[in-house]
Amino acid sequence: VKSIGLNGNYTYSGVARLHANSNNIEIALYPNPVQSHLYVQLSQPVKARLRATITNSKGQVVYKKGNINLQSSNQIQIEVLNLPQGVYNLLLTNGNDYTATGSFIK
Predict the structure, then answer these.
(1) CA 60, 62, 65 angle in degrees (round to 5)?
(2) Looking at the DSSP assignment, which residues form a beta bridge with residue 90?
(3) Which strand ranges, in their side-by-side order, compose the sheet holding 18-19?
(4) Contacts from 40-45 at CB under 8 Å and sequence distance 24+?
(5) Per-residue pLDDT at 46
(6) What is the pLDDT of residue 20?
(7) Which tens digit of pLDDT belongs to each residue from 48-73?
(8) pLDDT single digits (tens) 5-54
């Protein structure tokens, strides 16, 4: 994340790996910043159906989709074309034993 101060100086945040709370399943979000479609790549399949929730920097839910089945792929594609520019948080969960989070910029 690039942070620009009022004086024009900027800094970049560090790179962080994203880890799920069980099964050591990692996710990668790309491209970042995103234009029209966000891709979520999981390091391995999650057997149960997933739910994706995106919140904006104010914590407001701007996208929600349930019943995502990943049996044939480890990738999710989310259309974010209608989201305004900003910083967003993604939460993936199956409601039982898997939760992963990540942030992206639009």
Answers:
(1) 125
(2) 54, 102
(3) 18-19, 26-30, 37-42, 75-79
(4) 40/75, 40/76, 40/77, 40/78, 40/90, 40/92, 40/102, 41/74, 41/75, 42/70, 42/74, 42/75, 42/76, 42/100, 43/74, 44/74, 45/70, 45/71, 45/74
(5) 75
(6) 46
(7) 788 999 999 999 999 999 988 877 77
(8) 778 787 766 555 544 445 567 889 999 999 999 999 988 877 778 899 99
